[in-house]
Write a structure and sequence with these properties.
Layout lengths: L1 E8 L1 H4 L9 E7 L2 H4 L11 E4 L2 E8 H9 L3 H8 L3 E3 L1 H11 L2 H18 L2 H20 L11 H11 L28 H14 L5
Parallel strand pairs: 2-4
Antiparallel strand pairs: 1-2, 1-5, 3-4
Length: 210
């Protein structure tokens, strides 16, 4: 497997980890030529590979990852914009920026917040609050920040208290996009043809035809 990019995500990347936190690692890889031209119909190209510890380590094939980014899957964008990364970082950032659609990205995150609030358990409350802080920064500053230094001391402790069930969100709490003035940097539309061109170009660079 030709891995071109690796990023740490999850609580350790956010700086909200504790002694029970796993190390969540994500990779982006190029599939082999053999995987593309397999003559048997049932041998479909590999899209996703899970590591020994299942969700702790997952690798995504580049074309599949590009489609995830174009759907503005929040998880895919967290992988791309994580500050804890190595490999072909510039390429992945170019790919993520070309795929980013601000309205769709915000909508998916709002949907995730709503879903977490319905679950109404400490971990879900933590995720809802964490994403709301991320969205606030993205909407007002146009910045994608997934880093251990993102939260202030008070915010970090608040999130940990939510995670451990030592506090809860106020009754009726929600994230309202109308409370924040959208930054000009936030108004971004996806460029699907650019995404396709980048993916094609990366495979051709390796001498792997598509």
């Amino acid at each position: 497997m030709n891995i071109i990019y690796t990023a740490m995500v999850g609580s350790k990347a956010h700086g909200t980890d504790d002694e029970n936190s796993d190390t969540d690692v994500r990779h982006v890889f190029l599939r082999d030529l053999k995987d593309q031209i397999a003559p048997l119909d049932h041998m479909k190209p590999t899209k996703e590979i899970k590591g020994e510890h299942k969700d702790d380590e997952i690798a995504y094939e580049l074309s599949h990852f590009g489609r995830m980014l174009l759907k503005n899957n929040p998880t895919a964008h967290e992988i791309a914009w994580s500050k804890h990364r190595e490999g072909d970082v510039k390429f992945i950032i170019d790919l993520a920026y070309a795929a980013l659609d601000s309205e769709l990205y915000i909508s998916h995150n709002l949907g995730f917040i709503t879903s977490m609030l319905k679950d109404n358990n400490p971990k879900s409350m933590y995720h809802a609050a964490r994403i709301s802080l991320h969205l606030k920064t993205y909407m007002t500053e146009g910045a994608m920040i997934f880093d251990t230094n993102f939260y202030g001391v008070g915010e970090r402790q608040w999130l940990l208290d939510l995670k451990h069930g030592e506090t809860t969100l106020p009754e009726g709490w929600s994230f309202n996009v109308d409370d924040y003035k959208m930054s000009a940097w936030t108004m971004h539309k996806a460029q699907p043809h650019r995404v396709q061109s980048l993916v094609y170009g990366r495979y051709l660079k390796e001498g792997i035809p598509l």
